[in-house]
From TrEMBL:
One of its GO terms (cellular component) is apoplast. It is found in: Secreted, Extracellular space, Apoplast. Its main location: secreted. This is Germin-like protein. Oxalate binds at N107, H112, E117. CDD domains: cupin_OxOx (cd02241). Residues 1-23 form the signal peptide. It comes from Momordica charantia.
Length: 218
Protein backbone atom coordinates (compact mmCIF):
# COMPACT_ATOMS: atom_id res chain seq x y z
CA UNK A 1 0.00 0.00 0.00
CA UNK A 2 2.79 2.37 0.98
CA UNK A 3 4.72 1.58 -2.18
CA UNK A 4 1.62 2.34 -4.26
CA UNK A 5 1.32 5.77 -2.65
CA UNK A 6 5.00 6.44 -3.37
CA UNK A 7 4.50 5.50 -7.03
CA UNK A 8 1.43 7.75 -7.32
CA UNK A 9 3.28 10.64 -5.65
CA UNK A 10 6.27 10.15 -7.96
CA UNK A 11 3.94 10.18 -10.95
CA UNK A 12 2.40 13.46 -9.83
CA UNK A 13 5.84 15.03 -9.36
CA UNK A 14 6.91 13.91 -12.85
CA UNK A 15 3.69 15.25 -14.37
CA UNK A 16 4.10 18.58 -12.58
CA UNK A 17 7.69 18.90 -13.79
CA UNK A 18 6.59 18.10 -17.34
CA UNK A 19 3.96 20.85 -17.22
CA UNK A 20 6.52 23.31 -15.82
CA UNK A 21 9.01 22.33 -18.53
CA UNK A 22 6.54 23.22 -21.28
CA UNK A 23 5.46 26.49 -19.63
CA UNK A 24 8.35 28.46 -21.14
CA UNK A 25 9.97 28.76 -24.56
CA UNK A 26 11.70 25.56 -25.67
CA UNK A 27 15.43 25.54 -26.20
CA UNK A 28 16.65 25.74 -29.82
CA UNK A 29 17.01 22.34 -31.48
CA UNK A 30 19.70 23.48 -33.93
CA UNK A 31 22.68 25.83 -33.95
CA UNK A 32 20.53 28.71 -35.21
CA UNK A 33 17.21 29.54 -36.83
CA UNK A 34 17.72 32.76 -38.76
CA UNK A 35 14.35 34.44 -39.29
CA UNK A 36 12.89 34.46 -42.76
CA UNK A 37 10.55 37.50 -42.73
CA UNK A 38 9.49 36.81 -46.32
CA UNK A 39 7.94 33.43 -45.55
CA UNK A 40 4.17 33.20 -45.94
CA UNK A 41 4.03 30.59 -43.17
CA UNK A 42 2.88 32.01 -39.82
CA UNK A 43 4.35 30.53 -36.65
CA UNK A 44 5.00 31.71 -33.09
CA UNK A 45 8.15 33.62 -33.99
CA UNK A 46 9.58 33.33 -37.48
CA UNK A 47 10.18 30.50 -39.93
CA UNK A 48 13.84 29.50 -40.28
CA UNK A 49 15.74 30.58 -43.34
CA UNK A 50 17.50 27.79 -45.25
CA UNK A 51 20.85 27.52 -43.37
CA UNK A 52 22.66 27.13 -46.70
CA UNK A 53 21.91 30.78 -47.57
CA UNK A 54 22.64 32.21 -44.10
CA UNK A 55 25.57 34.64 -43.92
CA UNK A 56 27.40 36.51 -41.16
CA UNK A 57 25.27 39.58 -41.91
CA UNK A 58 22.24 37.70 -40.52
CA UNK A 59 23.88 37.96 -37.07
CA UNK A 60 25.03 41.58 -37.40
CA UNK A 61 23.75 45.13 -36.88
CA UNK A 62 25.46 48.47 -36.56
CA UNK A 63 24.61 52.01 -35.54
CA UNK A 64 24.36 51.87 -31.74
CA UNK A 65 27.23 54.35 -31.56
CA UNK A 66 24.85 56.98 -32.97
CA UNK A 67 22.73 59.03 -30.55
CA UNK A 68 18.98 58.82 -31.06
CA UNK A 69 16.91 61.92 -31.85
CA UNK A 70 15.36 63.08 -28.56
CA UNK A 71 13.50 66.05 -30.08
CA UNK A 72 10.05 64.80 -29.14
CA UNK A 73 7.57 65.41 -26.29
CA UNK A 74 9.13 62.68 -24.11
CA UNK A 75 12.69 63.79 -24.72
CA UNK A 76 13.91 60.23 -25.33
CA UNK A 77 14.62 57.81 -28.14
CA UNK A 78 14.78 54.01 -28.00
CA UNK A 79 16.89 52.33 -30.69
CA UNK A 80 15.93 48.66 -30.63
CA UNK A 81 18.05 45.73 -31.75
CA UNK A 82 15.73 42.72 -31.80
CA UNK A 83 14.87 39.98 -34.28
CA UNK A 84 13.58 42.59 -36.74
CA UNK A 85 17.09 44.11 -36.96
CA UNK A 86 19.11 40.89 -36.50
CA UNK A 87 17.31 37.87 -38.01
CA UNK A 88 19.81 35.56 -36.30
CA UNK A 89 18.24 36.37 -32.93
CA UNK A 90 15.25 34.21 -33.83
CA UNK A 91 14.69 31.51 -31.12
CA UNK A 92 17.63 32.80 -29.03
CA UNK A 93 15.53 34.70 -26.48
CA UNK A 94 17.59 37.88 -26.22
CA UNK A 95 17.67 41.43 -27.61
CA UNK A 96 18.85 44.88 -26.61
CA UNK A 97 18.19 48.57 -27.06
CA UNK A 98 20.00 51.86 -26.76
CA UNK A 99 18.05 54.58 -24.96
CA UNK A 100 18.97 58.25 -25.32
CA UNK A 101 17.56 60.93 -23.01
CA UNK A 102 17.57 64.70 -23.35
CA UNK A 103 18.05 66.61 -20.08
CA UNK A 104 14.96 65.81 -17.96
CA UNK A 105 13.66 63.56 -20.73
CA UNK A 106 11.69 60.43 -19.85
CA UNK A 107 11.18 56.94 -21.16
CA UNK A 108 7.51 56.96 -20.09
CA UNK A 109 5.79 54.21 -18.06
CA UNK A 110 5.60 51.08 -20.18
CA UNK A 111 5.78 47.29 -20.02
CA UNK A 112 7.49 44.53 -21.97
CA UNK A 113 4.95 41.69 -22.01
CA UNK A 114 7.51 39.06 -22.99
CA UNK A 115 10.76 40.09 -21.31
CA UNK A 116 12.68 41.04 -18.21
CA UNK A 117 14.93 44.05 -18.80
CA UNK A 118 18.35 44.80 -17.34
CA UNK A 119 19.46 48.42 -17.83
CA UNK A 120 23.04 49.74 -17.70
CA UNK A 121 23.73 53.48 -17.55
CA UNK A 122 26.50 54.48 -19.95
CA UNK A 123 26.35 58.24 -19.41
CA UNK A 124 24.39 60.59 -17.15
CA UNK A 125 22.11 60.16 -14.15
CA UNK A 126 18.77 58.38 -14.31
CA UNK A 127 15.86 58.03 -11.93
CA UNK A 128 14.33 54.62 -12.63
CA UNK A 129 11.46 52.68 -11.14
CA UNK A 130 8.87 49.96 -11.49
CA UNK A 131 5.48 49.20 -9.90
CA UNK A 132 4.39 45.79 -8.66
CA UNK A 133 1.06 44.20 -9.58
CA UNK A 134 -2.31 45.22 -8.13
CA UNK A 135 -1.94 43.25 -4.91
CA UNK A 136 0.28 46.06 -3.58
CA UNK A 137 1.10 48.52 -6.42
CA UNK A 138 4.41 49.04 -4.64
CA UNK A 139 6.82 51.47 -6.28
CA UNK A 140 10.55 50.71 -6.34
CA UNK A 141 12.81 53.60 -7.41
CA UNK A 142 16.54 54.17 -7.60
CA UNK A 143 18.89 56.89 -8.84
CA UNK A 144 21.48 55.39 -11.20
CA UNK A 145 24.84 56.77 -12.21
CA UNK A 146 27.32 55.83 -14.93
CA UNK A 147 28.06 52.11 -14.69
CA UNK A 148 25.05 51.29 -12.50
CA UNK A 149 22.71 48.43 -13.41
CA UNK A 150 19.00 47.93 -12.62
CA UNK A 151 16.50 45.15 -13.38
CA UNK A 152 12.84 45.56 -14.39
CA UNK A 153 10.93 42.26 -13.88
CA UNK A 154 8.96 40.88 -16.82
CA UNK A 155 5.57 42.49 -17.47
CA UNK A 156 5.77 45.18 -14.78
CA UNK A 157 5.24 48.88 -15.52
CA UNK A 158 8.55 50.76 -15.39
CA UNK A 159 10.10 54.08 -16.44
CA UNK A 160 13.29 56.13 -16.56
CA UNK A 161 13.96 59.87 -16.29
CA UNK A 162 17.16 61.77 -16.95
CA UNK A 163 17.56 63.94 -13.85
CA UNK A 164 20.85 65.45 -14.97
CA UNK A 165 21.56 68.63 -16.89
CA UNK A 166 23.21 66.91 -19.84
CA UNK A 167 22.26 64.03 -22.16
CA UNK A 168 22.09 60.50 -20.77
CA UNK A 169 22.52 57.13 -22.45
CA UNK A 170 21.61 53.61 -21.29
CA UNK A 171 21.85 50.14 -22.78
CA UNK A 172 19.00 47.73 -22.10
CA UNK A 173 19.22 43.95 -22.52
CA UNK A 174 15.95 42.01 -22.71
CA UNK A 175 15.18 38.31 -22.31
CA UNK A 176 13.25 37.92 -25.57
CA UNK A 177 14.07 38.14 -29.26
CA UNK A 178 10.93 40.29 -29.57
CA UNK A 179 10.02 41.66 -26.12
CA UNK A 180 7.21 43.94 -27.24
CA UNK A 181 6.42 47.26 -25.62
CA UNK A 182 3.16 48.73 -24.33
CA UNK A 183 3.44 52.42 -23.49
CA UNK A 184 0.70 52.97 -20.94
CA UNK A 185 -0.43 56.45 -21.98
CA UNK A 186 -0.42 55.55 -25.68
CA UNK A 187 -2.40 52.36 -25.12
CA UNK A 188 -5.00 53.94 -22.83
CA UNK A 189 -5.47 57.32 -24.49
CA UNK A 190 -4.33 56.62 -28.04
CA UNK A 191 -6.08 53.34 -28.85
CA UNK A 192 -7.66 52.91 -32.29
CA UNK A 193 -10.59 53.30 -32.04
CA UNK A 194 -10.71 55.29 -28.79
CA UNK A 195 -11.70 53.68 -25.54
CA UNK A 196 -14.99 55.24 -24.47
CA UNK A 197 -14.61 58.42 -22.41
CA UNK A 198 -17.26 56.97 -20.06
CA UNK A 199 -15.02 54.01 -19.29
CA UNK A 200 -11.86 56.06 -18.85
CA UNK A 201 -13.61 58.75 -16.78
CA UNK A 202 -14.77 56.09 -14.34
CA UNK A 203 -11.41 54.32 -14.34
CA UNK A 204 -9.50 57.54 -13.61
CA UNK A 205 -12.30 59.00 -11.46
CA UNK A 206 -12.45 62.25 -13.41
CA UNK A 207 -14.64 64.10 -15.93
CA UNK A 208 -15.21 62.92 -19.50
CA UNK A 209 -14.12 66.33 -20.79
CA UNK A 210 -10.73 65.89 -19.18
CA UNK A 211 -10.37 62.43 -20.74
CA UNK A 212 -11.38 63.77 -24.16
CA UNK A 213 -8.76 66.52 -23.84
CA UNK A 214 -6.05 63.96 -23.06
CA UNK A 215 -7.14 61.68 -25.91
CA UNK A 216 -6.88 64.61 -28.30
CA UNK A 217 -3.14 64.82 -27.53
CA UNK A 218 -2.64 61.27 -28.76
Amino acid sequence: MASSKVIILLGLVIATCAVAAFASDPSPLQDFCVADPNSAVKVNGFVCKDPKVVTADDFFAKGLDKAGNTSNPNGSKVTAVNVMQIPGLNTLGISLARVDYAPWGINPPHTHPRATEILTVLEGTLLVGFVTSNTENRLFTKVLYKGDVFVFPVGLIHFQQNIGYGPAVALAALSSQNPGVITIANAVFGSNPDISTDILAKAFQTDKAIIAGIQAKF
